[in-house]
Every structure is written in C-alpha cells, then in structure tokens.
Design brief:
Strand order of the largest sheet: 1-3-4-2-6-5
Protein name: Gag-like protein
Distance between the termini: 63 Å
Strand content: 15-25%
Organism: Rotaria magnacalcarata
Structural class: alpha+beta
Order of helices and strands: EEHEEHEEEHEEHEEHH
Largest sheet: 6 strands, antiparallel
Helix content: 25-40%
C-alpha cells in the first residue's frame, strides 16, 4: 500500500525519514500521512509534499518530494509526539543527497575537522558535518566534504566559488557521489527505482516474500545472481558488471562534454585578420546604432 500526495517534479531523490511506532498502529498509510500533514500545517504553517509506505517492522518510511519538505522534516523536535494517537520515534537519514554537499579545497591535512566545524557553523548555520576526503589506501587528502541541511546555502556557496574559513578564503566545488548501483528496495533488482516498482516486497536477506515483522533467520541469497550473499552486495557479479557499465558511461559523457566545449571554443576563436578593424567613423556609427 502506498499513498502519494501531489508533488512538483524533482530531480533529487530524497532518502526516507523512518517513523517507528511505540505501540501497535492499526491506521492506514493514508490516515497516518493525512494526520502528519494536518499537524505540520497547524504547528508550522508548512504544506508537506510527501510519499509514504510501510517498511521493516511496520515502520513508516516518509519520502519528501521536494527540498523544502525534506529540510522541514529533518528536525526531530518539529515532529508531533503522536500520529493517529500512537507515540512515535523519528530517525533522520544519516546521509543526505549529494546536492547537499560540497568540497572545500586547500583544507590542510593537519587541521582538525571538528574544531573548524564549530567555527564554520557560526557563519553557515545549516552546516552540520565535515568529513576528510581520503584516497583508497586511507591517506588524507587536502580537501573535506562539507554537508549542509539547506540546499540553498550550498547553491550560494557554489555560485560564489568560495567559502570563508576564519580570515581565509578557500575554493569550493560540487560534490559528486561515487559510482553506486541503483537497487529497488522492494524487489531488490537493479533496473528500476523503488517508487516505480509494482512487485511485492522481498526480504533483503533471503530474497523471499515473507513478513519482516520478526526479522529473518533464513540463509542469505541474492535475487539477482543466486549467490549466498544479500542482494546488492558489492561482491555480486551483477553489481560489479553494472558498476563497470556506469564507469564507462561516465567516461563517455565526460569525453562528450570536453569535445562539445572544445567545439564551442573553436567557434568563438578567430584571427584578427579575419575581421578587419573598422574606421573610426564607422565604428562610432555602429555603436550609436546599437
């Protein structure tokens, strides 16, 4: 069962906020989400645009359909104490979409991320975490990933191309998520999204269709390759093949972008003798006419 409230198209895929009920919840998804939307409107004056479905152990997964809804839901203190008269506990996602992050460059390897986070939060109020970037062998890079709770603050910094750290100005750039293979959280396959899936929900451990209320004690089995691992595991040959395809596709896209950029540059490059200088009188007439 899934209920979708009207939403504007959004390119960002937001992770769910997980709502756990402290007692048995008999209400339908529609009744619960209607109660949440009404309480949010009355308490905060904000119209939520959400999609919801039941998840593991009958928890409720609430998906935001736009950035303003997502950011509004991020503060656990704003949530009502109950939904349909049942007390709730709210779990905020640990990882936000990559659009909420940026890379701060020239961030010295010896600097403490925790110390600078406290100072930066005084200027950038939605900043909540700084993570040192590292290479595969674990060696630290001269850069950190900064995670924000406001996408508008990230956009402003990216447009300016810089961030103030104390009395210094450091360059920033977009953060790009490492290559990840998409997995449907219902049928556990890799060729479509969870929202578009019409198949029954499978157990993420054994890939069988059964109740998840009491967990699963079956052996691990992958629905994609039949191997003895959970579906979507990095060791799965299907996942590895899809990741290789994504890497190759990204290489082709980057090459195409470089070729197009070079062609555009060539269109605007010209030699001085191709366009002889106008005489002074003609030049004045040309400016006046334009």
């Amino acid at each position: 069962q899934q209920v979708t409230h009207p939403a504007a198209y959004s390119k960002i895929s937001f992770p769910p906020i997980v709502v756990k009920f402290k007692a048995d919840q008999q209400a339908s998804i529609k009744e619960i989400t209607d109660d949440l939307i009404l309480k949010w409107k009355n308490q905060h004056g904000i119209d939520l645009i959400i999609t919801a479905r039941f998840g593991h152990m009958h928890s409720l997964l609430v998906f935001a359909d736009d950035s303003s809804t997502f950011e509004s839901l991020l503060d656990p203190n704003r949530w009502p104490r109950t939904l349909n008269e049942v007390e709730i506990a709210v779990n905020i996602p640990r990882q936000f979409p990559p659009a909420y992050s940026l890379i701060i460059q020239q961030f010295h390897r010896n600097w403490s991320e925790d110390e600078w986070l406290i100072e930066l939060q005084q200027r950038y109020v939605s900043l909540y975490k700084i993570t040192r970037m590292r290479v595969k062998d674990g060696s630290p890079l001269n850069a950190v990933r900064a995670d924000f709770k406001s996408i508008e603050e990230v956009k402003t910094l990216i447009e300016s191309g810089k961030i103030n750290i104390g009395s210094m100005i450091h360059p920033v750039k977009l953060y790009h998520l490492p290559m990840r293979v998409n997995k449907c959280l219902k049928c556990l396959r890799h060729d479509h999204t969870t929202k578009s899936c019409s198949q029954p929900r499978l157990c993420p451990r054994c890939a069988q269709e059964h109740s998840l209320e009491h967990g699963c004690h079956n052996n691990e089995k992958c629905v994609n390759c039949g191997g003895d691992h959970i579906s979507g595991h990095s060791a799965c040959p299907v996942v590895q093949e899809k990741r290789r395809a994504l890497v190759e596709q990204a290489k082709i896209q980057r090459s195409d972008l470089l070729v197009r950029a070079e062609r555009q540059q060539q269109q605007y490059d010209y030699q001085g003798y191709d366009y002889p200088a106008l005489r002074n009188g003609l030049y004045f007439f040309f400016v006046q006419m334009h």
